[in-house]
Structures are given as structure tokens and as C-alpha cells.
Design goal:
The structure is a homotrimer of 289-residue chains. By secondary structure, chain A is of the alpha/beta class. Chain A contains 12 helices and 10 strands. The first copy, chain A, has a domain of 165 residues: NADP-dependent oxidoreductase domain (TIM Barrel), CATH 3.20.20. In chain A, strand 1, helix 1 and strand 2 form a beta-alpha-beta unit. Chains in contact: A-B, A-C, B-C. Chains A and C meet through helix 8 and helix 12 of A and strand 5 and helix 6 of C.
Chain lengths: 289, 289, 289
């Protein structure tokens, strides 16, 4: 499976208010930056983002071979009119229907990578495995993974599945070390799996000066940035992620190309271990023991 | 191994103040309801419940083949007179003696399923395995499991044992989601093991209106009950457990047959995923992410 | 691999202000007590303790065959002058250099057991494995282990290593039950691995009467000590550790031989399960469930 080292997230595509032409331009410039993988979910933009992206593939089908499409299923969004609540559905039937919808919306005949969006307390790993196998055999989906799973949830699903789960998409950033604390980082490294990282910049918390942790991290980023001659703190946070041996694949969620360029610049930056730990310890709020 | 889909718990048999005749009637009516498995422990009723049950098997030995007996060992109860404290003993010697006592008290020559009652911080999995093998070879016990074990404790014991552990008896109810949170549910499903669930009704907390969580859960149960045309909230909680794909085997602890009937009625109820999550989210106190 | 049942810790060797002659005498008397394993780390005494110990081996090389040397690497200590921060380095290069330094300082050509001192959030298990294999092939290190690792961190490293990790050196004492709570004790027992225990006496907390937990534990130790005819509470704590079926190898950190004798005396003491639990429950602050 190939994913570009940095991934462009499409969660907010609807909010960017792009015309189809603008979306196409954005995608082409993204590809020019070497970022060829696009991260979707059925539910993004209240079930609209896949469709907005698909309009581009419809008008310019030759783009399909140049990109990799990741999408997700398993969450059902609430609906005030029908009084539907927010819940999960990882039944075989729902997964198959969700993928068919995604293919239709995206104007493509295959998904590169399909993820179960959230660990479902009602999930039946055998059913998920059946759905995955069927999607694999039909060629509708090439690779499979999960998102936000713990180690044990990952293992429970993998134990029923005759295909390797290829990633766990989790939140990783200096603002969120939970997957260091719950050992997911070590587990994934032990399995040679690259985690995809959502919210690598913690959604703007980086510059929230009302927050002690943010101030602490930003102060340290500036120090390390000075040592390395890096002005963009975005870039440095991406470098912090990209330097980790687990092989983090960060997802840039912005619709502004400058932001994505900041991420791409991080590919050329090498932190020393000491620099990496300086940022880690600022995030922890104390030295390692 | 066969266990009935719902199990009758005998922890409070002493408190029911039944005559042997009344106990026999209770057992026979329980069997008539399709509930053929009875859950004991050496210590229930301060070491008396197995004996009270055994009186029935003594007077009516033909009952033995119609039922499955689960019992447990490993806890030593405190004793004020001898100043003995409350502790655990999972030594080979204690397990063997405890089973011999249980057989004598129950007036039977075999236990269907023996569980280690609690994870023992002083346990030696090799010793437990030796005891289990010996009990298996002698025919005194047919199957083995644990109760209240974490995933790692389960794996530590299983790694030393040449017989499969067949269950983990744990507390599961809308009032106690700890085994969702600690991943036991996912682990057991991954191993195709049915957890037995103790306190499926959380010991009456369901109707404790002084408790915010209870009120929240009960309000939601009533809503879902209305959708399904179910009046008994007991029944609905049992249905919530029985519908889960992990295959929960709930233990009804009441000595009143109407309560057991409420449980048995749940076998015919099918919740939608959305209904299951409505109750789960009421229990959580918030939506799933 | 052979380690003596009790290990002498050398973390504070510098603080003891021994002459080389005094250190030699201390070592020889320690050996006379049957304590032949000495626990070091590259960083102890701000990188000085291995050297102080090595002076003895230099002047009396015949001692080497009578003892086992454990040392550790992976922590980099801060340095005010160079403004170096406190961080971890488990790169192959650092591990190899650190062992070469240890060998030079200790005046020996082999380490019996090398441990990774702390789980490194930046670690690459494959690199550690490469370093370990190279050290094994060259004969510089005979056995390998870890310290302060969780179960998942242990498994991640083991999965990349073609040699068995032989121990996890962790803090265990009645004052610190964390490795019961995180299941490390059960995991290690399941793997037949003996944990080494640092701070078995919790660094003097035993006699800290300002601390409720200490008072609670000490009161119970005195009761159990009276039952067993043991005056030294140190001895009783060591016995509590040594009696556990996981096979705890406690590290005595004192430079006073009487303290080590207290530990050695514990080898002859047998606690009943009830006595062991009395101390465990005093440590918990409540009965087991």
C-alpha cells in the first residue's frame, strides 16, 4: 500500500466554499507538492465532502490514478428531523452500503484504504471481517484499517480478519500524547504499522495563549526553531511527528496551500533526539523520569 | 460446554429462607423456563448455599442430569472468631480441597464449570493449571474459567494451561461499563468466549431515583420500552445485554420466579443498533464521539 | 542466566564515600552473604559509580568471575554547563557506545545483563534489537532485559528481538503496588520471568510516621512480625517480596552490610498466604474484594 508521507484531510472541504474548479485546482496543487493521499469519511461535512470531491473526479477522471483515497465508515450522524441519535454501525450491511455510497459520491470504482472510524462497543469483528473480505474480493477497497482503536480493539478485529490491518488513524500531536500513554505508539511500531495522525496541530491550540500547556509548548518550539533556523511553528510540529521512528503520517486539515507547504517543508528537517525530547517534555509539563 | 442462555444465580439462596421442598420447586420451575444453569460459589451464604442446593439433589438425584452447575473457588472469607482475614487462596491444595467440598455439599460427583473467583495478586498460574488438569482428569470438573479477570490476567493463566478457559464472569450492566472501558468485551469477542454477567440489573440501582445516572438510564429505558412495547424495565436491560454480539450470559440473582420470567422474556426481543446505543449513551452520560 | 536471589544495588556507591579498599571489602563481604549480583547503570553517581566499582576489579581481577554485573543504558543526564536536558537515547549508536564506556569503567570485558533503563517514547525496537544482537555476538553482553517497561512496551521490543528479554526491573514494594495494578506481575509470571525489584523498602518511607499509608503498613508489619518472631521490619518486607511466586529479585540499595543481612535473612522466612495478604491489604488500604 502506498500513502504519501503527508496526507491532505478533506473533513472541512464543505466549509472552504470552493467551486468544483477551485477544488480541482487545490487537488492539483496538492499533488504537485507530493501530497497524493486524500483523507475522507462518509460523514464529513454532514455526508457532503465525498460528493464535493467526487465532482472533480467526475469532470477530470484522469486525476484518479494520481491519488490515493482514504475513507471511513461506521459512524451514523444524528438527524434532528428524524430524531435519529448519534451512534455507530459496523454491521456488514452498513459497511457495504456505506462503501457503495462513497464510491458513488467520489465518482470512483475503488477506495485505496477503508477505515472503521471509531471502535464500536457493539461491534462484531467477524461481521467486519466478512464485509472487508467481500469488499476486497470485489475490488471495491484495496486496503483496510481502523481509527481511534486501542491495542486490544485492534487485536480483536485482526484476530478475525484474514487481511492485515494496515494502519490505525489516531490523534497525535504535542498537545495529545494519549497514544504514547496507552502504548499504541509502541504497539504499532512493533507491528511495523504507520499510524496516520489526525489533528497534528491540535486544531489551532498551538497559538492559544490562554492555555498554559500551549504557552509552554510554543515557548519550547520557538527555542528549538531558533536552533534549527525554522520560522514556522507548524513546520516544526510536523517535523516532530515525522521524525518519530514509528513513521507517523500526519493529516493536514487546512484548505490553504501555505499550510500544507508548511507541512511539506518538515520533510527536510532532522531533529536531534534532544530536540525531540525538549518538545515532548514541554508537552508533558515535566522532564522524563 | 453447554450453559443456558440465562443463568440462575444462587448467591442469595440462604436469604430466600426456602425449605428444601421450596428450593426443589424453584429449581424445577426454573428448568421449565429453560434456565438450566445454576451459578454457585463455595463462599455464597457464608459457605452454606451449595449445601442448601445439594439437599435438593440428594433428595431428587434425577435433577442432576437436567442442569449445569457452575461454582467458584479462591476466596477465603474472614472469620471473626478465628480472626481470619479476608484473602485469596488459589494454591493447588486449596483449589482441590475446595472442589471436594463443593462436590460433597452439592451432592454431585461433577461440576460443569469451575471459576477462579477473583484475580489473586499472589497467584501462580502454573499451580492453578496443575489443579485444573487434575480435576479434569479425575472427571470432577468438566470446564474451567475465571471471574473478574483482566485481559492480561486471563492470558497469564491461559498461557500455562493446556485446557481452554471458557469464560470470564464479569459485572456488565448499563450501570457498569467497566469491561467496555478495559477492553474485556472486545477481547472476549475476539476469542469467541461468552462472558457471564453478574449483577445485570446492578442490584436494584435501576430504580434508585436519588442517583442521577439511574434516573438518566431509566428515562431512556422507558423511551425505548415504549418504542418496543415492553413494560418491564428488567426485561429491557436483559435484552440490552442479550442483544450484544459478544454473547453475554446474564445471571439472574433473584429468588422470585417473576423476575426470572422477566429475564427470559428478553430472549425474544430484538433491539435496533440505535436503541442499543440510546441506552449505552444514557449510561455513559454523553454521546459516543 | 544466573542472578543471586538478592542483588546489591550500586546506585549510591559514590555517596558512601568508600576508598577503593573499602569498596573491595564491601564487595567481598557481600559475596560472602551469597549476594553475588551487583546492579549498576551508566548514569549512577552522575556517571561515576561504574568507575568506582571498576577500580576494585582493576586491583583485584579475580573477583570478576565470582560476581554478575547488571548495568543499564538509555538515559542521558542533564548538564547545566552544556545546557543539555534530561532525555533518553536508545539509538544503536548510543547503546553500543554506552556499553563500551561501561566495560571500560568497570574494568571488565563483559556485562552479564544489560537493561534499557526506561521505556523511550522515541525508541525504535529494531535498532535496540540490532544493538543487542551485536553486543551478544561480540560477547560484550551475555543477557538483555528492560526496566520500567509496561507489558506492551516489553512485547514491542521482544517482537523485534531474536533473543529472550530475561527481566523487567521495576519498582515493587508494599508502598508501590503499581505493577500489580498494571498487570506486569501477572504478565511476567506468565512468561516465567523474574522481575528485579528496585526500591523494595521504598527508600525509607517505611518509617515515615507522617504518612498514613506508612503507619498502616508498619502497624501490620509489626503484627505479622510478632506472629513470625521477626524483629526487623526490613527483613519482613524482603520476605513479603521473596515469597511471591513471580520470583522477585529485590535490590538492596544500602551501603551498610547490616541492611543487606536483613535482606538475606528474609530468604529463610515463609509467610502464609494470609500473612502475605495482611500486608497487601494494609498497603491497599482496604480488603481485597
Amino acid at each position: 500500500m502506498y500513502l504519501s508521507r503527508i496526507v491532505q484531510g478533506m473533513m472541512r472541504l464543505r466549509d472552504w466554499n470552493f467551486s468544483t474548479k477551485e477544488t480541482e485546482e487545490f487537488i492539483m496543487k496538492t499533488i504537485d507538492l507530493g501530497v497524493t493521499t486524500f483523507d475522507h469519511a462518509d460523514i464529513y461535512g454532514n455526508y457532503t465532502c465525498e460528493g464535493l470531491f467526487g465532482e472533480v473526479l467526475k469532470s477530470n477522471p484522469s486525476l484518479r490514478d494520481k491519488i490515493q483515497i482514504v475513507t471511513k465508515c461506521g459512524i451514523v450522524l444524528p438527524n434532528k428531523e428524524t430524531k435519529r441519535i448519534h451512534y455507530y454501525d459496523t454491521s456488514k450491511d452498513h459497511i457495504l452500503k456505506s462503501v457503495d455510497n462513497s464510491l458513488r459520491n467520489l465518482h470512483t470504482d475503488y477506495i485505496d484504504l477503508l477505515l472503521i472510524h471509531r471502535p464500536d462497543p457493539f461491534m462484531n469483528p467477524e461481521e467486519i471481517a466478512e464485509a472487508f473480505l467481500e469488499l476486497h474480493k470485489s475490488g471495491k477497497v484495496r486496503f483496510f484499517g481502523v481509527s481511534n482503536f486501542t491495542i486490544n480493539q485492534f487485536e480483536a478485529l485482526q484476530s478475525k480478519l484474514n487481511l492485515p490491518l494496515v494502519t490505525n488513524q489516531i490523534e497525535i500531536s504535542p498537545f495529545n500524547l494519549e497514544h504514547f500513554e496507552n502504548d499504541n505508539i509502541y504497539f504499532l511500531k512493533g507491528k511495523n504499522l504507520n499510524p496516520m495522525a489526525w489533528s497534528p496541530l491540535a486544531g489551532g491550540k498551538l497559538f492559544d495563549v490562554s492555555n498554559d500547556k500551549s504557552v509552554r509548548i510554543l515557548t519550547t518550539l520557538k527555542e528549538v526553531g531558533k536552533e534549527l533556523g525554522i520560522d514556522s511553528m507548524d513546520t516544526l510540529v510536523y517535523a516532530w511527528l515525522l521524525n518519530h521512528p514509528v513513521g507517523v503520517i500526519p493529516i493536514s486539515g487546512s484548505g490553504r496551500l501555505e499550510r500544507l507547504k508548511n507541512a511539506v517543508e518538515a520533510l527536510n528537517i532532522k531533529l536531534t533526539r534532544e530536540q525531540w525530547f525538549k518538545i515532548y517534555e514541554a508537552a508533558l509539563g515535566h522532564d522524563v523520569p
